[in-house]
Amino acid sequence: MSLPLTPLDWIALGVFVACWVVYALVVDRVPAIRARSVIAAMDEHRRRWMIAALLRDNRIADIAAIGNLMSSVSFLATSSILILGGLVAMLAAPDLGRRVVAAFPWSEVPNDAMWEVKIALLLLIFVNAFFELTWSLRQFNYVSILVMGMPQDPAATGAAEAAARLANRGARHFNTGLRSYYFGLAALAWIIHPVALIAASLLVLREVHRREFRSAARDALATGAVR
Description:
By secondary structure, the protein is an all-alpha fold. It is 82% helix and 0% strand. The protein has one domain.
């Protein structure tokens, strides 16, 4: 069965995929580009944190900090489940959803098949967000165990490096899940019109790039990460 997409829908979907998937591949897989991101700057700070923890006998503050990270991840993971429940309800009640869409000016009210395709895209995005966030949550949980098991020995840098690598991977998956939220909001615009999807995808791409590479927070973190 062929998808009921118009040429404009295909173009909009192509722009959306390029903005999200291609951007993520370039930023996460090209070392020279990734090194200039806020994520890379934070990697070094987390490494310093784990090395500094070697000197502490009481690591309650370290565990509390990891708990704060886990709370943020857990909130978004739980929210993604609630969003998925809402999307399934929208899939089951297309008439009500289309009436809401029809209230927007210049909106293109989808038929049953198009409604299912657009909601299915949102379902895929937030399923991906859920898996990324829950994996991030588990990795931060592992980090807490590693931190409590590290010896109070400045020479035990191997244990600190292992904890830092795991914390950095947890942060990376958290960032990937967060991107799913951003581009999920862009995909929501497709329900209104394909042009709205194009505009929303470009806007989200601009904002994600600004925050990761051109924000004041990135500059401050990169300056502090210089050895």
